[in-house]
Amino acid sequence: MRENWEQWENQHLAPEAAKSTASRGRIVSEPPCPIRTVYQRDRDRIIHSKAFRRLKHKTQVFVSPKGDHFRTRLTHTLEVAQIARTAARALRLNEDLTEAIALGHDLGHTPFGHAGERSLALLCPGFSHNKQSLRLVDYLEQEGLGLNLSWEVRDGILYHSGDDGFPATLEGRIVRLCDRIAYVNHDIDDAVRLGLLDPGDLPREAAARLGPSHSRRINTLVADLIKSSSLAAGIISLSTPAALAMQQLREYLFEKVYFRPEAKEEEAKLLVMIRALWDHYLARPTTLPQEYQGYDQKLAVCDYIAGMSDNFAFEQFALIQKQ
């Protein structure tokens, strides 16, 4: 069955697509699966990981919102995967590789979203969620054995955001752009639901170009991505007008949502919480779970805190306060 899939890829995918048979392989060589291609196998390993399950209790933007319909890091991940697969299918790129990268791109995200990431980076200089995602799949999952993912999936996870590099595959570049398409639009949707934004107050030019609703904006951006990308040139991009419109929405979110005074106050409180956890475990390394012992103590504490869900971090902080 795997060989049939591989043959199908070689016959039907675009010449520029990443083919399973051309993968650069894994850190530790393994016999191939008789049923699944290398990228299908990676996708399954990510879905069955503990880190993936923890995403359901990790903040996307709003910490502990009152309501069932706000995004979590898990639902964000699923939305990125859906949007990215749609684009990959239309461009005849490898959907399985695209999905594996999308499902794994935020595995290493901290509790409390980017506020938690910034707080932990103050204590662990150089920390970033994309580097932590790679560290998690390489070393921390499976009690220190890692998931042993393919080079292409690991590359896409590491370079899905930030300025340190760019994904080597077109599939990774799709995830990088679709990550932004997803969060810009669903963060608007959640902010409206929370009463922080009025849809009528969105930048007029951007709303007129992309559409008046969440679904219309995503559809417009994905269609534009498909039309504007050039596989032969290695380019996955939006047209200039669409990119400018999305940037306007992103800047509006930073001003009205991400950096609003209440959010900065909340972030200051989270920093106090994360610093308390940091100081506690540094002073009491034997209280760390067994898998976080036996290597550099600061790195181990960083790994442990980064892996916490919001709920677990709150619980541990409460226990510390009682001691």
Structure overview:
The chain is mainly α and 323 residues long. 63% of the residues lie in helices and 0% in strands. It is built from 15 helices and no strands. It has helices spanning 2-12, 38-47, 50-54, 73-90, 95-104, 113-123, 129-144, 151-158, 170-194, 204-210, 214-228, 240-258, 261-283, 297-307, 310-322. The longest helix is centred in the middle third of the chain and has 25 residues, at 170-194. The model has no long low-confidence stretch (mean pLDDT 95).
Topology:
Elements: H1 2-12, H2 38-47, H3 50-54, H4 73-90, H5 95-104, H6 113-123, H7 129-144, H8 151-158, H9 170-194, H10 204-210, H11 214-228, H12 240-258, H13 261-283, H14 297-307, H15 310-322
Structural class: mainly alpha
Low confidence ranges: none
Radius of gyration, CA atoms, in whole angstroms: 20 Å
How far apart the termini lie comes to 57 Å
Supply the number of helical segments.
Answer: 15
Strand content: under 5%
Question: Level of helix content?
Answer: 55-70%
Summed up:
The protein is an all-alpha fold. It has 15 helices and no strands. It has helices at 2-12, 38-47, 50-54, 73-90, 95-104, 113-123, 129-144, 151-158, 170-194, 204-210, 214-228, 240-258, 261-283, 297-307, 310-322.
List keywords for this structure.
323 residues, single chain
